[in-house]
Each structure stands twice: as structure tokens, then as C-alpha cells.
Amino acid sequence: MSQDNPHRILFVDDEQSILDVASGYFTRLGFEVLTAKNGVEAVGILEAEKIDCCFTDINMPGMNGVDLAEHIRNIDNTLPVVIMTGYPTLDNTISTLKNGVVDFLVKPVNLSQMELCVRRVFSQRKLFVENVLLKKEVESKRKLEKLNCELSLKVDELNTLNRILTHISGKSSTKDVFCRLVNLAIDITQSDESGFYVVNDAVRMPFRIASAIAAGAGETRSHLPRSSAESVDMGPDLALPIPSVEGLVMESAKDEMPLLIAENNDTRDLPPDIHSMILMPVKIRAKVFGVLTTVVTEQDKRFSERDLYYLNFMAQSAADAIENLALYENIYENLFATLFAFVNAIEARDPYTRQHSSRVTRFSIIIGRELGCSSDELETLNFAGHLHDIGKIGIRDDILLKPGRLSKEEFEKIKEHPGIGARIVEKLGFWEQERHIIRCHHERFDGTGYPDGLKKDEIPFLARIMSVADVYDALSSDRAYRRKMEEKQVLQIIREGSGTQFDPHVVETFFTLHKQGRMQEPQIKENPTDIFSDTC
């Protein structure tokens, strides 16, 4: 017991002499003593003061000792209560024990006996309080561990959802979305195979357009599609029985509901070697257009509800991405078709240069491929090549179609067409790289070109490629002011221009391709929506 913080004992008895004797004795022992003449007075003290132990008589007016003990147990079950009585009975003993009384003393009580009781009570109370605190600590630790576990699962879930959004929303084509979708399905659910089937009114049986197979160590292989036989419509008379997977795909699409199927817990028959399967309909504007499938072939593995949740989120994200891409691609193709119509209008003004832009595009792509250009760079060449002369729409016919040599003033007007073309594309708000190529395709390697007098590496690399392709086709074609040149003369002009008009590396590549017969005039596609096929 600390002298700075002594234990406080409450004595409750209707006999003042007992209170005086007990108070004096325990005060001298270093305890702080409070007294009350009945239970009601004791309750008031308990509400106002912190008490460490209570001695109470049983028979008192107002509130007896048994009721006081019950009251104390209800407000603080760690506070020890000792009963003192001169008339012990079995009923009193049982009543006090029921109310959590720790000891029972019979009057007259020996002070030494009371002291021994106090010290035993405080020792037991210390152990009891420590045990209660330990239990609370253990319980708190258990709750904290549970909370940490739940938090960790939630963080993992958010990371997975963010990963799905990042991988799907960042794709630039619907083909990429489908490939990423089946790969993610395997990666996130740890499944063995995944596929995406198109299901709509125009397809009589599910048509798989993407699939992936787990390759081990978290890797996947995907392709589009595995077998053309999967999409064959046999007709009403020759229709074959639909395989189990396709049948389940059609069921999921028809019900517009996801399916989680495992052996021994579903009435549906799974295909051979498949032990668990998820089928997730993918909807655009509330209409199913396809079903994502993923399967487990390992005997001891099954899909969970969490896998179903992730695939559902994946399907919704893919549907949003596909819808946005479809809208963008439609706008893109319509806009490009409009610009292509401008090019056709320009070329229609000059029959000698008809399809010049298409040929320049093909030649540029052939050279670009040989130089190791990426698919994005080839697509840039594809776009810029078709539109590189679009600025000529701003040049008067009497200059553009003049059969003789241009005057200095007329040539200065002709030199404006790269800038006009770049401004037309700039107004669209995108295609920045393509705009630079359109503007720079008449720049020269030695810096004497137009419109900006750029030289060497200042000229965009793709514009240096297009410059060679443009001159090669122009010299090889009939023009309003001259007939086309002989191939030998064309090649001589290009070779002489190496290092002055053209990038020497591009010229070297051009001649390598020409010797291989790969710079022959290409077949021109009339449909502007087909132009992207060469860059895939």
C-alpha cells in the first residue's frame, strides 16, 4: 500500500461505536476510512468517492447490507464487499454469496481478524483486476488483429479493383480490351483457362474471340481466336450438339445472370476435366453482348464468391471501356473519312496526282517497317501520309494546276500548303505528332526546305521517311507540268539528294528495299476505313 495513494475503505453500520473503532484502527494502519450509517448513505458516498473495499452490516434501516452488496455488484463488480452480522443464517449467507460478497464475518469481529481479511481482500482484488485487465487486453488484441485482417483484405481488394481499372481502361482498341480481359481473369482468380464469347442475335452459337491459358508462374498466353471452327454456323439442318461450355455460355447470356459452378454442388454438367467454372455476362446498355468464362482444371481448387465479385467488376469495367472505344472509333473513322474526302477532292482537281497520297502512305509504311518503327509510329505514318497534302485545298487552281513552270510568287503560294494542312489538323484538337509530320514533309536535311528551314534531327524522323516516299512517287508520276520520269532517273535524283534533301539513313534503306523489289507501286485501297489494316 502506497502512503501517497492509500487504499480507501468504506464501513457501513448503524452502530456508531463499531464505526468509530474500525475507523480509528484502520486509519492508524495507513488506510483512508469513510463511514456510513446505512445503505442509502453508503450509495451516496460510492457515487461521489472512489472506494477500494466495503465492510457492511446486514441489518440496517432503509437499505440493508444484502441490497447494498447487490447495488455495488451492479455498478462495479471489481469492488470487494465483506458482510458483518451478529445473526448469521443460511439464507443470509446464500444471499450475500449470490451478490458477489467476498467474505462473511460474524460479530463481534476481532480487529486483527478484520485486518487480515482486508489484506487478503486487497491481494485477491489485485489479482482479480490484473486478470480483468489481461482479459481486456487479450480481447482488444484479438479485435485489433481482426480489424487489421479486415483492413488488409479491404486494401487488397481496392488494389485489385484499381489494377482492373488501370489495365482495362488504358487500352486503345477493343481487341486489346478482350485480350487483357481474359488475361486478368486468369491472373486475379488464379484459374487455368479463360475465354470471351460473343453472344447476340446475329450469332446462333457462341463465338469465342479471345482466350488465354495459364502458363505457370503467374504468366498467361492469349490469342484471338483459337479455332475458326468455333464460329461456324452449321445451319438449321446440319447443326451439331452444342458443347457443354457453349451451352452454359448461352444459358448465362439468356438468363443475364452470372454462374458459379463447381462439381457436386450444382445440377449442371461441367465439361470433362473442369472442376469449377464462372460465367459472367458482359452488358452494354443493359443488353448482353458477350460472356466471360474462366475455369479451374485442378482437382482440389474451386472458385469463391470473391472471384465472382472480381469478375463482375471486371465485366462492368470492360463493358464501359468497349462502349467508350466503340464511340471513339466511330467518331475517329467518321472524322478520318471526312478528311479523306477532302484529299479525294484535292486529287480530283488534278487527275495527274490521283491516289498520290495513298501511294506515299504505302511507301512510307514499307520504309518505316524496315527501319523498325513501332506500330504506333506506323499508324502515325498511315494517318499523316494520307493527309500530308490536305493543305493544297487552300491553293488556287490556277497555281495548283498550272501546266508550265511556276513563277517565284506562285511557288511561294505552293509552299504554304504544309502550314495550311497542319492548321487544319490542329483545329481538330489532337493528332499532334501527325500535325508535325504534315507540316515538315517538305523540310530538307540541309536546312533549305520549307516552311521552317529545319535541318537534320530537327526534322521529325517520320517526316524524313515521308519526304523520300513523297519525292519518289512524285517523280514517278505524271504531273500537270511534266510526264513521269524514268525509274533510273528517279533513283539518281534520290541518291544525289542523300545528305542534302534527304536523311542518308532513310535513303540507304530505300535503296535496299528497291533492290529487293519491295518498292513497287502498291495496290491502292479505295475504302478509307480499311487503311489501318497494314499497321496491325
Would you kindly provide a written description of the structure presented here, covering whatever features stand out?
- The model is unreliable at about 215-245 and about 525-535 (pLDDT under 50).
- The chain has a 6-stranded antiparallel beta sheet, with helices on both faces. The chain has a 5-stranded parallel beta sheet with strand order 2-1-3-4-5, with helices on both faces.
- The chain folds into 3 domains: about 10-135, Rossmann fold, CATH 3.40.50.2300; about 175-230 and about 240-320, 2-Layer Sandwich (Beta-Lactamase); about 350-535, Hypothetical protein af1432, CATH 1.10.3210.10.
- The two termini are about 85 Å apart.
- It contains 18 helices and 11 strands.
- The radius of gyration is 46 Å and the shape is elongated.
- It is of the alpha/beta class and about 525 residues long.
